[in-house]
């Protein structure tokens, strides 16, 4: 299975670690990472995910990001908008797109604690969804 990974650069100390974990997990599951792209933030992911899903050599996309709570509800707006857009793209192209984006409403220490579980589950989700789609096609 050929996958792409799209990683947000915002909160890069966290997301770069998420990328390392996701890459290790993908390798352990024999997934081929065809593309690894970086975008400024989670909100910026949909346009790159859209371009990747149009490619015949991409079977699914793993997204990685960390949305940390600030002093406003901006984190909630970003998370909801991004999740909705990624879901719509997954349905449009009938290819799995995982939501490996932690947050909203979390503090920085929570984001660090979620690096491994969120990144690993994002990889696993793309693989599991792909297998389920194969069963019904």
Automatic annotation (TrEMBL):
List of residues binding 5-amino-6-(D-ribitylamino)uracil: 10, 42-44, 66-68, 99
EC number: 2.5.1.78
Enzyme class at the top of the EC tree: transferase
Functional pathway: Cofactor biosynthesis; riboflavin biosynthesis; riboflavin from 2-hydroxy-3-oxobutyl phosphate and 5-amino-6-(D-ribitylamino)uracil: step 1/2
UniProt-annotated binding residues for (2S)-2-hydroxy-3-oxobutyl phosphate: 71-72, 114
InterPro entries: LS, LS/RS, LS/RS_sf
Active site (record annotation): 74 (proton donor)
Catalytic activity: (2S)-2-hydroxy-3-oxobutyl phosphate + 5-amino-6-(D-ribitylamino)uracil = 6,7-dimethyl-8-(1-D-ribityl)lumazine + phosphate + 2 H2O + H(+)
Gene Ontology molecular function terms on file: 6,7-dimethyl-8-ribityllumazine synthase activity
SUPFAM superfamilies: Lumazine synthase
One CC-aspect GO term: riboflavin synthase complex
UniProt KW keywords: Riboflavin biosynthesis, Transferase
GO terms of biological process kind: riboflavin biosynthetic process
Matches recorded under PANTHER family: 6,7-DIMETHYL-8-RIBITYLLUMAZINE SYNTHASE (PTHR21058:SF0), 6,7-DIMETHYL-8-RIBITYLLUMAZINE SYNTHASE DMRL SYNTHASE LUMAZINE SYNTHASE (PTHR21058)
Function: Catalyzes the formation of 6,7-dimethyl-8-ribityllumazine by condensation of 5-amino-6-(D-ribitylamino)uracil with 3,4-dihydroxy-2-butanone 4-phosphate. This is the penultimate step in the biosynthesis of riboflavin.
Family note: Belongs to the DMRL synthase family.
UniProt name for this protein: 6,7-dimethyl-8-ribityllumazine synthase
Gene name of the encoded protein: ribH
